[in-house]
Each structure stands twice: as C-alpha cells, then as structure tokens.
Design a protein that fits this description.
The protein is of the alpha/beta class. The chain has 2 domains: 4-308, Up-down Bundle (ABC transporter transmembrane region fold), CATH 1.20.1560.10; 326-572, Rossmann fold (3-Layer(aba) Sandwich), CATH 3.40.50.300. Helices cover 63% and strands 10% of the residues. The strands form 2 sheets. It has a 6-stranded mixed sheet with strand order 6-7-8-3-9-10, with helices on both faces. It has a 4-stranded antiparallel sheet with strand order 2-1-4-5, with helices on one face. α4 packs across α11 (291-308), α6 (163-178) runs antiparallel to α9 (209-261) and α19 packs across α20 (554-572). The model has no long low-confidence stretch (mean pLDDT 82).
Length: 573
C-alpha cells in the first residue's frame, strides 16, 4: 500500500501538516457538535438555552473551519506540485542519463510515464495517503470522545470500523488480478496511438488506415472493459462499505438509546452518539472510495521506480592526456540483454585521426552495435576498447561528450528558425560562422532565397525541407559543434543523389582534420574511404582499402557488383 521509496524522494512535512490540520478541523467539529448536544439537552430538559453562546460557537467554528479548509487546499496543492515537479525532474534526468542506452523507453511510453503516470502518482500521494493516516487518527479521536460518555456503544463502533479496511483489502486482492499489467496495457495503448499518428501518411498511402483504426478500436475496447470491471468493483465495494457504515452507526445509536433508557448514559452523551456515530465511519468510508486511485497510483509508482532504478552506464575518472589520435577494439564480444546470441564476435579494428573509416554490411550485421560500444552507450562487453591508450571503462563521461559526435537519420529538427536549430550545435557561433558551415553543406543559396533567410521558421522535424536538405542541415549543426570523432550512421539513407554526393564530399573533407567513422550498407558510398571494415553476422569478414577489397574479398566484390548493376539499371530506366 505504501512504497517507502516514494518518501525517500519527496518532502514528508506537507503530508504531516495536512493530517494534523485535518485533525484540528475534526476537533472543531467535535466541539461544535458537543455545543449543539449540550444546548439541545438543556432545551429538552427545560433548562434555559444560551443562544448567544451557540451562535458564537457556530460562527467561530465555521470561520476556523473555513480557514483550515483553505490551508488544507494549499497544503494539498503544495504536496502535489512538489511531487510532480520532483518526479518529472528525476524522470527527465534519468532519460538524459540513459540516452540511447539499454533499457531506454520509447518516446511515447516515456511521455505517458512522465505525464499521466506522475499525475496518477500525485493523486495517490497527495490525497489517498493523507486520507489513510487521517482516518486512523480520526477514528481514535472520535472513539476517545465517545468512550468518555459510554464505553459499551463506543467499543461496538470501534469493532465495526475495521470491517471497512477488511473490505478494502479484499477488494484490492481481487483488483490486483484485474490490474495485473493494467498500467502496461495503458502505456502500450498510448504508444500504439502515437505510432499510428506518426505514420498516418504511410498508412494512408498503403490504404491501411482503416485496418489500423479497427485494430486501435479493438485495443481501446479491451482496455475499456478492464477499466469498467475495476470501476464496477469499486462501486460494489462502496455499496458494501455504506451498508457496514450505516449498520454500524445505527447499532451504535441503538445501544446509546438503550443505555440512556437504562440511565447508564447522560442525555448529552446520548445526543453525542447520535451526532457522531455516522461521523465515526466517514473517514474510513472516504478512504475506501479512493482505493481505485490508490491502485492506479501504486501501479504508476512501481512503473516509475522500475524506470528510475534501471542500471546506468558506469564511467571512470580518467581524462585523455593528449588529443584523441586513435581508437582500438581488441577481441570484443558482446550480446544484448536477454539474448544468448552474440551480436559481436571477436571484433578487432583500429581507427586513426585523419582517416575516413567505413563500416559496411547488411542490416543487423553489427555495425551500429560497434558504434554504440565506442560511445559507451552499451556495457557488458568482453575484450578491450581503447581511446588512445586509455580503456573506455576508465574514461570520464565528459571526455566522451566533448570528443564524440553521433549523426544519424533520426536527428531531430525543432520547430524553430534555421538559425536557432544551428545554434544548438554551438550557441556562441557568429552569423559568419553559420553562413560558413551552410556553405560547406551547400545550403547557402537555398537559405538566401528564403524570405527570412536564417530566421526562416522550420516546421517540426523539418517537414518543410526535402530529405536531402534536412540531412545537410543536421550535418551543418554537427560541424558547428566541433569534435575529434565524428560518427555518421546511415546519414545518406533516403536522400537524393545530389545531396548524397554533397554529404560524402563534406565528410571526406572533414576526415582530413578529424576522425570520421561512416556506417553504410551501400558500398558505392565508401569508394573513397581510407579503410573499410566489412561486417557479416557480427564479425569482421574483410578489411582493407576499397580497391584491395574488390580484388580480395568475394563478399565485397559480389555485393559491389550487385550494387553497380542496380545503379546502372536505375540510370538506364
């Protein structure tokens, strides 16, 4: 019911204050009902009633309770806002630390977890938990008040009161079966919706939008039925709790009347039982009505902490004493978590400063895995990876961030101006530097023709750019960043031949002063590379210059000849 990890990350003071203020408010209600009981007793016994005292107590109680209600609202808001801000900060910091590492969630799931998940957790934390602690002390406070008038009916009320939490626990045991994977189903539903929305144009193009709509509707209907089952159970449990509450209150009132008839209790005491018997069960009854919120909050809490406790990459404490001059992998083996198959098998390669190194091979051959290992995005490898003469595990995170730049076709262009997107690479770059880097990727003439040139606004992810213009803008941003190691992963995928040629020429020029690793499954892209490593099934099957590989590597020669035929056929067509 209560996750201790939550209290380790949040401020508990607000919750304690919230419970105390609500108990003070309950104490004022008890004083008010006691005043009513005394004055009503006087009236029934034909004793003079003090109307002034009654009105004074009434006004004072209402005024204080109003002020306390405002205070409760403020404390609730403070507790919930601090939790939301604190948890979202933790989730986003975790997301940035994980980066593209193992265990990272999809963007849709991460968005749902940091928005809806934390909202559910906030309701659980700021409303259910205070109610849980409040109802325990409130019941004892009311019991202590009533037992001073007559212990027998008070004890009967106290015995009936635990029936409500027993009902809650019974319902929660059943609800756990229904809620098994409930939050996962919810996030999966949101992720599918996000995927369908992102790929709507593709679905339309292939006339699959209606099929996906039917599939999404079926998933939503299944989730609706699970939710309705849970809500139906909650309504049934509330009905049972109401029956227990009313029966318990009626039993307490009946016993108080019987005790009064036997002259075992005063008239004021009997009236207090009538006025407070229902109040005795209200806090626990309110707790029961919040159990659905609690279950959702507990599910969200588990999901959040599972994510926050994911293992992160461990970095060392060493810096590079000299500028990065070479990288080396020696007999590296690696397998992904949950897989018995090696993704890399005894991979050894060397990359030197001033060289254009290409990694080629079919999809799934291990090229991107090598890159992720070089950037320390993956851990648990066997063998050695050296930056200069320092093992990768011993390097600080700052060294990796300052030296290495990864550019792929998944880079994001923000809905800002061209200038603002470029400045993400280097916020101190001057306008002359921006034009210079645009000249390198041959976008100068295009940008100059725009109405607002550098201040031209771009749509989300560069939707108002062609594929080639988009990739060249991403390349320009990376060049502005500056670094000793540039890794380009399939950056020419999906661009026109003209843009492809511009990008490759730019990379060859860059390789004269920096270390460039270029990943591609197209061999004709790497005909000018200084060295090529050919990957197949997680192994390096060939290594050399393009010319030597065409003569010595049967795999390379066959693949290259096949590509040349495809290109020739395309040009002929």
């Amino acid at each position: 019911m209560i996750d201790k990890r939550l209290f380790q990350l949040t401020e508990k003071k607000n919750l304690f204050q919230l419970v105390i203020v609500r108990l003070v408010q309950l104490g004022l209600s008890i004083v008010f009902w006691l005043t009513i009981a005394i004055e009503l007793g006087h009236y029934l016994q034909a004793v003079r009633v003090s109307s002034r005292r009654l009105v004074f107590v009434l006004i004072l109680t209402l005024l204080l309770k109003t002020l306390l209600t405002k205070w409760i609202e403020r404390l609730t808001y403070r507790a919930s806002s601090e939790l939301r801000i604190g948890m979202r900060k933790l989730v986003m910091e975790k997301a940035f630390r994980l980066g593209q590492g193992q265990g990272q969630l999809s963007s849709a799931t991460l968005a749902q977890l940091s928005v809806d998940g934390i909202e559910q957790l906030e309701i659980y934390y700021a409303r259910f938990l205070p109610q849980l602690f409040y109802c325990l002390f409130a019941s004892l406070l009311i019991f202590g008040t009533l037992v001073s008038f007559a212990w027998q009916p008070a004890v009967v009320l106290l015995i009936c009161m635990p029936l409500i939490p027993l009902i809650i626990m019974s319902v929660m045991k059943i609800a756990k079966r229904i809620l098994s994977g409930y939050w996962t189903k919810y996030t999966d539903l949101g992720a599918k919706f996000h995927e369908n929305l992102s790929g709507l144009s593709t679905l339309k193009a292939y006339h699959q939008d209606e099929a996906k709509q039917i599939e999404a509707a079926a998933d939503a209907e299944r989730f609706r039925k699970v939710t309705m089952s849970l809500l139906s159970m909650q309504l049934n449990s509330i009905t049972i709790m109401d029956i227990v509450s009313y029966c318990g209150a009626a039993l307490g009132i009946g016993l108080a009347l019987f005790s009064y008839q036997q002259q075992a209790i005063t008239l004021v005491g009997m009236l207090m039982f009538i006025l407070l018997s229902a109040e005795f069960f209200i806090p626990m009854r309110q707790l029961g009505s919040l159990f659905h919120v609690a279950m959702n909050g507990i599910s969200a809490c588990k999901k959040l902490f599972t994510y926050l406790e994911l293992p992160e990459q461990v970095f060392g404490e060493k810096d590079l004493e000299t500028e990065l001059a070479h990288l080396k992998l020696q007999q590296v083996n690696f397998s992904y978590q949950g897989s018995d198959q090696l993704a890399l098998k005894e991979v050894s390669l060397t990359v030197k400063q001033g060289e254009f190194t290409a990694l080629v091979g079919t999809s799934g051959s291990g090229k991107s895995t090598v890159v992720r290992l070089l950037l320390h995005q993956l851990s648990g490898y066997e063998g050695q990876i050296y930056w200069n003469d320092v093992e990768l595990r011993e390097l600080t995170q700052e060294v990796l961030k300052s030296h290495a730049i990864l550019v792929d076709n998944h880079g994001f262009i923000y809905p800002m101006t061209i200038k603002e997107n470029l400045l993400l690479g280097n916020e101190t770059a001057s306008e002359e530097e921006l034009w210079a880097v645009l000249e390198k990727v041959q976008l100068t003439s295009f940008v100059q023709k725009l109405p607002e040139t550098l201040n031209e606004p771009l749509e989300e992810d560069g939707a108002n750019l062609s594929g080639g213009q988009r990739q060249r803008l991403l390349l320009a941003r990376a060049l502005l960043r500056g670094g000793r190691l540039y890794i380009f992963d399939e950056i020419t995928s999906g661009v026109d031949l003209r843009s492809e040629e511009i990008i490759l020429n730019c990379l060859q020029e860059l390789a004269k002063t920096s270390m460039v690793i270029f990943i591609s499954h197209r061999l004709y892209n790497v005909s000018e590379a200084d060295q090529i490593y050919v990957f197949e099934n997680g192994q390096i099957t060939a290594h050399g210059t393009p010319n030597s590989l065409q003569k010595e590597s049967a795999y390379f020669k066959h693949y290259f000849d096949q590509e040349e035929r495809l290109i020739a056929g395309g040009e002929h067509g």
